[in-house]
Specification:
The chain is an alpha/beta fold. About 50% of the residues lie in helices and about 15% in strands. The chain folds into 2 domains: about 5-110, Arc Repressor Mutant, subunit A (Orthogonal Bundle), CATH 1.10.10.10; about 125-360, 3-Layer(aba) Sandwich (Rossmann fold). The longest helix has 29 residues, at about 15-45. GO terms for molecular function: methyltransferase activity.
Length: about 375
Protein backbone atom coordinates (compact mmCIF):
# COMPACT_ATOMS: atom_id res chain seq x y z
CA UNK A 1 0.00 0.00 0.00
CA UNK A 2 1.30 3.43 -0.92
CA UNK A 3 2.05 5.64 2.07
CA UNK A 4 0.69 9.16 2.32
CA UNK A 5 4.24 10.47 2.16
CA UNK A 6 4.93 8.52 -1.03
CA UNK A 7 1.68 9.74 -2.53
CA UNK A 8 2.70 13.33 -1.95
CA UNK A 9 6.18 12.65 -3.27
CA UNK A 10 4.84 11.22 -6.54
CA UNK A 11 1.91 13.59 -6.93
CA UNK A 12 2.59 15.46 -10.16
CA UNK A 13 0.84 18.50 -8.69
CA UNK A 14 3.29 18.71 -5.81
CA UNK A 15 5.77 21.54 -6.49
CA UNK A 16 8.95 20.86 -4.51
CA UNK A 17 10.29 24.36 -5.19
CA UNK A 18 7.12 25.89 -3.83
CA UNK A 19 7.29 23.59 -0.80
CA UNK A 20 10.87 24.59 -0.03
CA UNK A 21 10.03 28.26 -0.45
CA UNK A 22 7.15 27.85 1.97
CA UNK A 23 9.41 26.09 4.49
CA UNK A 24 11.75 29.07 4.27
CA UNK A 25 8.82 31.41 4.76
CA UNK A 26 7.76 29.56 7.90
CA UNK A 27 11.29 29.52 9.29
CA UNK A 28 11.41 33.26 8.73
CA UNK A 29 8.13 33.58 10.60
CA UNK A 30 9.49 31.58 13.54
CA UNK A 31 12.63 33.71 13.61
CA UNK A 32 10.46 36.82 13.46
CA UNK A 33 8.43 35.69 16.44
CA UNK A 34 11.64 35.10 18.39
CA UNK A 35 12.93 38.56 17.51
CA UNK A 36 9.61 40.16 18.52
CA UNK A 37 9.81 38.55 21.96
CA UNK A 38 13.40 39.67 22.43
CA UNK A 39 12.56 43.17 21.16
CA UNK A 40 9.91 43.37 23.86
CA UNK A 41 12.53 42.46 26.47
CA UNK A 42 14.96 44.93 24.95
CA UNK A 43 12.39 47.68 25.36
CA UNK A 44 11.29 46.77 28.88
CA UNK A 45 14.86 46.49 30.18
CA UNK A 46 16.01 49.65 28.40
CA UNK A 47 18.68 47.77 26.47
CA UNK A 48 17.87 49.48 23.18
CA UNK A 49 18.01 52.91 24.82
CA UNK A 50 21.32 52.22 26.55
CA UNK A 51 22.94 50.66 23.49
CA UNK A 52 21.87 53.62 21.34
CA UNK A 53 23.58 55.98 23.77
CA UNK A 54 26.72 53.90 24.37
CA UNK A 55 27.49 52.20 21.03
CA UNK A 56 29.84 50.56 20.49
CA UNK A 57 29.77 48.58 23.73
CA UNK A 58 30.75 45.13 24.92
CA UNK A 59 28.15 42.97 26.60
CA UNK A 60 29.80 43.66 29.96
CA UNK A 61 29.78 47.42 29.45
CA UNK A 62 26.15 47.39 28.27
CA UNK A 63 25.07 45.23 31.20
CA UNK A 64 26.83 47.58 33.60
CA UNK A 65 25.16 50.77 32.36
CA UNK A 66 21.78 49.03 32.17
CA UNK A 67 22.14 47.44 35.60
CA UNK A 68 21.49 43.96 34.19
CA UNK A 69 23.04 40.49 34.27
CA UNK A 70 25.84 40.23 31.70
CA UNK A 71 25.15 36.63 30.66
CA UNK A 72 21.54 37.38 29.78
CA UNK A 73 22.55 40.58 27.99
CA UNK A 74 25.16 38.73 25.94
CA UNK A 75 22.66 36.14 24.74
CA UNK A 76 20.09 38.86 23.97
CA UNK A 77 22.73 40.61 21.90
CA UNK A 78 23.28 37.38 19.97
CA UNK A 79 19.61 37.40 18.99
CA UNK A 80 19.82 41.03 17.93
CA UNK A 81 23.01 40.37 15.96
CA UNK A 82 21.71 37.34 14.06
CA UNK A 83 18.54 39.31 13.32
CA UNK A 84 20.72 42.05 11.76
CA UNK A 85 19.38 44.62 14.21
CA UNK A 86 22.70 45.09 16.00
CA UNK A 87 26.15 45.13 14.36
CA UNK A 88 28.90 43.00 15.96
CA UNK A 89 32.67 43.55 15.76
CA UNK A 90 34.49 40.28 16.62
CA UNK A 91 37.87 41.94 17.11
CA UNK A 92 36.84 43.69 20.32
CA UNK A 93 33.54 41.85 20.87
CA UNK A 94 31.59 45.09 20.71
CA UNK A 95 28.04 45.76 19.60
CA UNK A 96 26.56 48.78 17.83
CA UNK A 97 22.96 49.80 17.33
CA UNK A 98 22.90 51.77 14.04
CA UNK A 99 21.15 55.14 14.35
CA UNK A 100 18.73 54.14 11.58
CA UNK A 101 17.61 51.20 13.73
CA UNK A 102 17.66 53.16 16.97
CA UNK A 103 15.16 55.59 15.44
CA UNK A 104 12.55 52.81 15.49
CA UNK A 105 13.57 51.06 18.72
CA UNK A 106 14.23 53.68 21.38
CA UNK A 107 12.10 55.87 23.60
CA UNK A 108 13.59 59.09 22.30
CA UNK A 109 13.99 57.95 18.69
CA UNK A 110 12.86 60.07 15.79
CA UNK A 111 10.30 57.53 14.59
CA UNK A 112 7.56 55.42 16.15
CA UNK A 113 9.06 52.89 18.59
CA UNK A 114 8.22 49.50 17.10
CA UNK A 115 9.59 47.68 20.16
CA UNK A 116 6.53 48.99 22.01
CA UNK A 117 4.29 47.10 19.57
CA UNK A 118 6.43 43.97 19.93
CA UNK A 119 5.31 43.73 23.56
CA UNK A 120 1.84 42.64 22.45
CA UNK A 121 3.25 39.32 21.21
CA UNK A 122 4.33 38.33 24.71
CA UNK A 123 1.26 39.82 26.41
CA UNK A 124 -1.31 37.93 24.37
CA UNK A 125 0.94 34.89 23.89
CA UNK A 126 0.67 34.23 27.62
CA UNK A 127 -3.03 33.46 27.02
CA UNK A 128 -2.40 30.69 24.49
CA UNK A 129 -3.80 27.92 26.69
CA UNK A 130 -6.93 29.93 27.43
CA UNK A 131 -7.51 30.75 23.77
CA UNK A 132 -6.96 27.14 22.69
CA UNK A 133 -9.63 26.17 25.19
CA UNK A 134 -12.00 28.75 23.64
CA UNK A 135 -11.31 27.32 20.19
CA UNK A 136 -12.55 23.97 21.49
CA UNK A 137 -15.42 25.05 23.71
CA UNK A 138 -16.29 28.60 22.68
CA UNK A 139 -16.76 31.52 25.05
CA UNK A 140 -14.53 34.46 25.72
CA UNK A 141 -12.13 36.10 28.15
CA UNK A 142 -12.11 39.18 30.33
CA UNK A 143 -9.68 42.08 30.41
CA UNK A 144 -8.33 40.94 33.77
CA UNK A 145 -6.94 37.82 32.09
CA UNK A 146 -4.44 39.98 30.19
CA UNK A 147 -1.52 41.00 32.35
CA UNK A 148 -0.02 44.35 31.30
CA UNK A 149 -2.42 44.80 28.37
CA UNK A 150 -3.68 48.23 29.47
CA UNK A 151 -0.11 49.32 30.21
CA UNK A 152 1.18 48.32 26.77
CA UNK A 153 -1.89 49.67 25.00
CA UNK A 154 -1.40 53.02 26.73
CA UNK A 155 2.22 53.12 25.62
CA UNK A 156 1.29 52.28 22.03
CA UNK A 157 -1.55 54.81 21.97
CA UNK A 158 0.71 57.51 23.36
CA UNK A 159 2.87 57.25 20.23
CA UNK A 160 0.16 57.13 17.59
CA UNK A 161 -2.69 59.14 19.13
CA UNK A 162 -1.91 61.02 22.35
CA UNK A 163 1.39 62.69 21.46
CA UNK A 164 0.35 63.93 17.98
CA UNK A 165 -3.31 64.57 18.85
CA UNK A 166 -3.33 68.35 19.20
CA UNK A 167 -1.09 69.20 16.26
CA UNK A 168 -1.96 66.44 13.79
CA UNK A 169 -5.38 64.99 14.68
CA UNK A 170 -7.42 68.00 15.79
CA UNK A 171 -6.90 69.82 12.45
CA UNK A 172 -9.11 67.16 10.83
CA UNK A 173 -12.05 69.15 12.22
CA UNK A 174 -11.77 72.88 11.48
CA UNK A 175 -12.55 74.95 14.55
CA UNK A 176 -12.46 72.05 17.03
CA UNK A 177 -9.27 73.22 18.68
CA UNK A 178 -10.78 76.65 19.29
CA UNK A 179 -13.93 75.09 20.74
CA UNK A 180 -11.78 73.11 23.16
CA UNK A 181 -9.93 76.29 24.06
CA UNK A 182 -13.26 78.06 24.75
CA UNK A 183 -14.68 75.17 26.77
CA UNK A 184 -16.85 72.18 25.80
CA UNK A 185 -17.93 68.87 27.34
CA UNK A 186 -16.00 65.80 26.17
CA UNK A 187 -16.37 62.07 26.89
CA UNK A 188 -13.85 59.36 26.00
CA UNK A 189 -15.56 55.98 25.53
CA UNK A 190 -13.41 53.00 26.48
CA UNK A 191 -10.69 55.34 27.68
CA UNK A 192 -8.39 52.55 28.86
CA UNK A 193 -5.51 54.02 30.85
CA UNK A 194 -6.93 57.49 30.17
CA UNK A 195 -3.70 59.08 28.99
CA UNK A 196 -5.37 60.80 26.04
CA UNK A 197 -8.11 62.41 28.09
CA UNK A 198 -5.62 63.48 30.77
CA UNK A 199 -3.47 65.17 28.14
CA UNK A 200 -6.50 66.97 26.75
CA UNK A 201 -7.70 68.05 30.18
CA UNK A 202 -4.30 69.58 30.88
CA UNK A 203 -4.04 71.20 27.47
CA UNK A 204 -7.59 72.64 27.47
CA UNK A 205 -8.39 73.68 31.06
CA UNK A 206 -11.66 75.41 30.12
CA UNK A 207 -13.17 72.19 28.76
CA UNK A 208 -14.61 69.41 30.90
CA UNK A 209 -13.63 65.77 30.35
CA UNK A 210 -15.05 62.37 31.34
CA UNK A 211 -13.25 59.07 30.82
CA UNK A 212 -15.40 55.92 30.80
CA UNK A 213 -14.11 52.36 30.82
CA UNK A 214 -15.37 48.93 31.77
CA UNK A 215 -12.31 48.33 33.96
CA UNK A 216 -11.50 50.77 36.77
CA UNK A 217 -8.03 49.29 37.16
CA UNK A 218 -7.23 50.44 33.61
CA UNK A 219 -7.39 54.14 34.54
CA UNK A 220 -6.66 53.99 38.28
CA UNK A 221 -3.04 55.19 38.01
CA UNK A 222 -3.99 58.06 35.70
CA UNK A 223 -6.86 58.98 38.00
CA UNK A 224 -4.45 59.19 40.92
CA UNK A 225 -1.99 61.20 38.85
CA UNK A 226 -4.71 63.67 37.83
CA UNK A 227 -5.64 64.16 41.48
CA UNK A 228 -2.00 64.53 42.52
CA UNK A 229 -1.23 67.24 39.97
CA UNK A 230 -4.54 69.01 40.49
CA UNK A 231 -6.36 68.42 37.20
CA UNK A 232 -9.85 69.50 38.21
CA UNK A 233 -11.64 69.28 34.86
CA UNK A 234 -11.38 65.51 34.47
CA UNK A 235 -13.32 62.65 36.04
CA UNK A 236 -13.09 58.92 35.43
CA UNK A 237 -15.96 56.48 35.84
CA UNK A 238 -16.16 52.74 35.61
CA UNK A 239 -18.98 52.09 33.17
CA UNK A 240 -20.33 49.14 31.21
CA UNK A 241 -21.46 50.97 28.08
CA UNK A 242 -23.88 48.17 27.28
CA UNK A 243 -25.68 48.62 30.60
CA UNK A 244 -26.30 52.38 30.56
CA UNK A 245 -29.35 53.91 28.87
CA UNK A 246 -27.87 57.34 28.24
CA UNK A 247 -24.33 58.66 28.40
CA UNK A 248 -25.27 62.25 29.18
CA UNK A 249 -24.88 65.34 27.01
CA UNK A 250 -21.59 66.17 25.30
CA UNK A 251 -20.16 68.33 22.54
CA UNK A 252 -17.46 65.82 21.61
CA UNK A 253 -17.44 62.03 21.91
CA UNK A 254 -14.06 60.28 21.56
CA UNK A 255 -13.40 56.58 21.00
CA UNK A 256 -9.85 55.41 20.39
CA UNK A 257 -9.55 51.79 19.20
CA UNK A 258 -12.37 50.82 21.55
CA UNK A 259 -15.66 50.39 19.69
CA UNK A 260 -14.91 47.01 18.09
CA UNK A 261 -14.24 45.44 21.51
CA UNK A 262 -17.70 46.36 22.84
CA UNK A 263 -20.49 43.90 23.48
CA UNK A 264 -22.69 45.72 20.97
CA UNK A 265 -20.73 48.23 18.88
CA UNK A 266 -23.82 49.53 17.07
CA UNK A 267 -25.59 50.13 20.38
CA UNK A 268 -22.58 52.09 21.67
CA UNK A 269 -22.51 54.18 18.51
CA UNK A 270 -26.23 54.92 18.87
CA UNK A 271 -25.70 56.05 22.45
CA UNK A 272 -22.81 58.22 21.29
CA UNK A 273 -25.08 59.82 18.69
CA UNK A 274 -27.84 60.41 21.27
CA UNK A 275 -25.32 62.01 23.65
CA UNK A 276 -24.28 64.70 21.18
CA UNK A 277 -25.59 68.21 21.61
CA UNK A 278 -26.46 70.36 18.61
CA UNK A 279 -23.29 70.88 16.54
CA UNK A 280 -21.61 68.04 18.45
CA UNK A 281 -19.46 65.40 16.80
CA UNK A 282 -17.84 62.04 17.37
CA UNK A 283 -14.17 61.38 16.66
CA UNK A 284 -13.45 57.67 16.42
CA UNK A 285 -10.09 56.04 15.70
CA UNK A 286 -9.94 52.43 14.51
CA UNK A 287 -7.47 50.28 12.59
CA UNK A 288 -7.73 51.20 8.94
CA UNK A 289 -7.94 47.76 7.37
CA UNK A 290 -10.68 46.66 5.05
CA UNK A 291 -13.80 44.68 6.00
CA UNK A 292 -12.92 42.33 3.11
CA UNK A 293 -10.12 39.85 3.72
CA UNK A 294 -8.95 39.93 0.11
CA UNK A 295 -8.27 43.65 0.45
CA UNK A 296 -5.92 43.04 3.41
CA UNK A 297 -3.54 40.61 1.71
CA UNK A 298 -0.92 43.32 1.24
CA UNK A 299 -1.53 45.09 4.56
CA UNK A 300 1.93 45.58 6.12
CA UNK A 301 0.83 44.25 9.54
CA UNK A 302 -2.31 42.39 8.49
CA UNK A 303 -1.27 39.09 10.04
CA UNK A 304 -0.37 40.81 13.31
CA UNK A 305 -3.76 42.56 13.49
CA UNK A 306 -5.71 39.38 12.76
CA UNK A 307 -3.60 37.64 15.42
CA UNK A 308 -4.53 40.34 17.92
CA UNK A 309 -8.13 39.81 16.95
CA UNK A 310 -7.94 36.09 17.71
CA UNK A 311 -5.93 36.53 20.91
CA UNK A 312 -7.59 39.62 22.41
CA UNK A 313 -10.30 41.59 20.64
CA UNK A 314 -12.63 38.69 19.83
CA UNK A 315 -12.26 36.98 23.24
CA UNK A 316 -12.95 40.14 25.28
CA UNK A 317 -16.04 40.89 23.23
CA UNK A 318 -17.27 37.30 23.49
CA UNK A 319 -16.53 37.41 27.22
CA UNK A 320 -19.23 40.10 27.46
CA UNK A 321 -21.62 38.06 25.32
CA UNK A 322 -20.76 40.33 22.43
CA UNK A 323 -20.60 40.21 18.65
CA UNK A 324 -16.81 39.80 18.36
CA UNK A 325 -16.35 42.10 15.37
CA UNK A 326 -12.60 41.68 15.70
CA UNK A 327 -9.71 44.05 15.20
CA UNK A 328 -10.11 44.08 11.44
CA UNK A 329 -13.84 44.85 11.26
CA UNK A 330 -12.74 47.35 8.67
CA UNK A 331 -13.38 50.86 7.46
CA UNK A 332 -16.36 49.86 5.33
CA UNK A 333 -18.30 48.25 8.18
CA UNK A 334 -17.33 51.01 10.61
CA UNK A 335 -18.69 53.66 8.26
CA UNK A 336 -21.90 51.67 7.70
CA UNK A 337 -22.44 51.26 11.44
CA UNK A 338 -21.91 54.97 12.07
CA UNK A 339 -24.63 55.75 9.54
CA UNK A 340 -26.91 53.05 10.95
CA UNK A 341 -26.41 54.62 14.38
CA UNK A 342 -27.95 57.86 13.12
CA UNK A 343 -24.97 59.92 12.01
CA UNK A 344 -25.84 61.81 8.85
CA UNK A 345 -22.32 62.82 7.91
CA UNK A 346 -19.26 60.56 8.17
CA UNK A 347 -15.79 61.67 7.11
CA UNK A 348 -12.87 59.18 7.01
CA UNK A 349 -9.32 60.53 7.09
CA UNK A 350 -5.84 59.00 6.89
CA UNK A 351 -3.01 60.92 8.46
CA UNK A 352 0.65 60.94 7.35
CA UNK A 353 2.00 60.30 10.85
CA UNK A 354 -0.18 57.19 11.33
CA UNK A 355 -0.38 54.81 8.35
CA UNK A 356 -2.30 52.11 10.21
CA UNK A 357 -5.34 53.90 11.67
CA UNK A 358 -8.42 55.49 10.14
CA UNK A 359 -9.90 58.62 11.72
CA UNK A 360 -13.70 58.93 11.56
CA UNK A 361 -15.50 62.22 12.14
CA UNK A 362 -19.25 61.68 12.48
CA UNK A 363 -22.00 64.26 12.97
Amino acid sequence: MQTAEAAVRHDVSFDEGKAKAFAGQMLGTINGAAVALMASIGHRTGLFDHLARHSPATSAALAAVAGLNERYVREWLAVMTTARIVDYTPADRSYTLPPEHAAFLTRDGAMKNLAVIAQFVAVVGALEDEVVDRFRHGGGLCYHHYDRFHEVMAEASHQSIVKPFVDQVLPIVPGLRQRLEDGIDVVDLGCGAGRAVLMLAQRFPRSRFVGLDLCADAFSETQQEAARIGVGNLVFRQQDLAAVDRLGAFDLVLAFDAVHDQKSPLDVLRKARQALRRDGLMLMVEFGGSSRLEQNLTHPIGSFLYMMSVMHCMPVSLGQGGEALGTMWGVELAETMLRDAGFGEVQVSRLPHDPFNAYFVAR
